[in-house]
Amino acid sequence: MGRESATEELISGRGYQTFQYKGIHFAPGGFFDGTAIFRSANENADVQSTFGDIPLQGSANSQLSEFRGSARGSRLNLLGEGRYRSTAIAGYVEVDFLGSPTYGNELETNSWGPRLRQVWSNVDLPNGISLLFGQSWSLLTTHRIGLKPRQEFIPLNTDLQTVVGNNWARQWGLRVTKAFGPNLIAAVAIENPETSVNGVVQPIGVQGFNTSPNAQKPSNFFTTSLTPGANGISTDIAPDILGKLVWEPGYGHWEIKGIVRFFRDRFGANNHVAVGGGVGLAAVLPLTQKLKLIAEGLVGAGIGRYASTIGADVVASPSGKIVPIGAFQLMGGLEWHPGDDWDVYAYYGIEHYARTAYAGTAIGYGSPLADLGGCGVEDPGTQPCQAANQTVSQVQPGFWYRMINSDIGIIALGLSYSYTHRTVWSGLHGIQPWGEEHMIMTTIRYYLP
Questions:
Q1: Count of C-beta atoms within a 10 Å radius of residue 171
Q2: Pairing state of beta strands 356-357 and 364-365?
Q3: Tens-digit pLDDT profile for residues 94-131
Q4: CB-neighbour burial class of residue 3 (10 A; exposed 0-12, middle 13-18, buried 19+)
Q5: Long-range pairs of 65-68 with CB within 8 A, sequence gap ≥ 24
């Protein structure tokens, strides 16, 4: 595999210096990161922004800018590879420092804990079938080339929430991949399910979602003080089912992908089940030897959590029936590598979520009767803010410059800017708040060789 872009491959975790233990070759990798963050509106966020919840105009946070310095994006990884006869076996683990232990704070020691990003094993059989199991980037994530792990398209920007409109997740899964000749590859996977109800007004007493009373008790490792700030977990009935077909005809990388999801709740002494999902397309195209175009899109119902704003998946009707929310997510970008030391990029993304409401009630998503009185005021007091995102869009340009590129590692300087615009569905009295965010991240990284 060629090193078209050192930043690209090192961001994906590629290590080049190896050592051997018995029959296994180990390659450590990663980078040490120092990032300065400026936001025009306060998100209380680190290097992972909250695109779907940027402050609405008129709120106190929209009048307060935010500055933060962080080393929490630093990343360490280890790849192990070996062979058993004609079978190739690999294992990979990757962590950063976005964990939130009870002692983590910015008052004195900045004692942030490590966070598991990926841990998986991959087995390549001689018949062209590969088996991936563990926690990895979702199969829904676009690949740059082929369908192997560590070849995913991860935007080059610093923000760990990537770009609005980008489809991704990192979660447990079991994936089977099969090559049909040199140009066609297919994969199917089951992956960890979870239901997002961000911005949804639920009937009182609905069980089964991560915000429901049953998700908080019994107490467990998801909801106790061991994971402060963690949501509960939804009580899902089955895994998400994903499929992807990759075609590489000699010009570019083309994908068609799909997902089927199963949702469940309990209301009025009855369980309710619904099916959602979506279909998507993606392409990575070399416009010139040094310029690439990336484009991807997903449309469907119940697909919100697979986008960077972590949009809503479903609503529960007044009778408890589950209704998946219609949505589309689009992202495109250009990546330019004018020389060995430079990576320049610009991305644009948009997400839209359909109004899914019920006449005569505020229940649902984006109801015209939702109370938005507390959304755009300095001190909302007891006024609620039942805001549901309508459209979130973003433009995000930036660059990386490798100041030192040597056999002892790489020192790289990165600068990214983003403008994000958020609109929510109108509520009572036609009130329709909106928000905007200007953000700059400046980063210095030392990549291990």
A1: 16
A2: antiparallel
A3: 999 998 766 778 888 888 889 999 999 999 999 999 99
A4: exposed
A5: 65/38, 65/39, 65/40, 65/41, 66/37, 66/38, 66/39, 66/41, 66/42, 67/36, 67/37, 67/38, 67/39, 68/36, 68/37, 68/106
Q: Which residues pair with 67 in a beta bridge?
A: 38
Q: Is this prediction's pTM over 0.85?
A: yes
Pair of tokens at residue 234: 């939804």
Query: Architecture of 6-447 per CATH?
Result: Beta Barrel (2.40)
Domain boundaries, the chain: 6-447
Residue 230 backbone phi and psi in degrees, to 5: -75, 145
pLDDT of residue 222: 66
Residue 426 CB coordination number (10 Å): 17
Tell me which DSSP letter residue 315 carries: E
> Strands of 200-201's sheet, edge to edge?
200-201, 364-365, 356-357
Q: Tell me the two tokens of residue 33.
A: 């990161």
Vertex 154 angle, CA 254 and 171, to 5°: 100
Q: Distances in Å between the alpha carbon of 344 and those of 232, 303, 397, 444?
A: 40, 30, 8, 16
Segment 332-344 mean pLDDT = 96
The string of pLDDT tens digits covering residues 364-394 is: 999 999 999 999 899 888 899 999 999 999 9
Cα separation, 163 vs 395, in Å, equals 8
Query: HSE on the CB side for 358, CA within 13 Å?
Result: 17
First to last CA, the chain: 16
| Res 89: pLDDT | 97
- Report the alpha-carbon distance of residue 356 to residue 215 in Å, rounded: 24
DSSP string for residues in 401-417:
EEEEEETTEEEEEEEEE
